Amino acid sequence: MTKKEFVAEAHAAALESAKQSGMPALVTVAQAALESNWGASGLSQQAKNYFGIKAHKGHGEIVMETHECAHGVEHEVHAAFARYGSMLECFRCRDGILSRGAVYAAARQNRDNEQDFIREMAKHWATDPHYAEKLTAVLEEVKGML
Question: What is the CATH number of the domain that holds 80?
Answer without folding.
Answer: 1.10.530.10
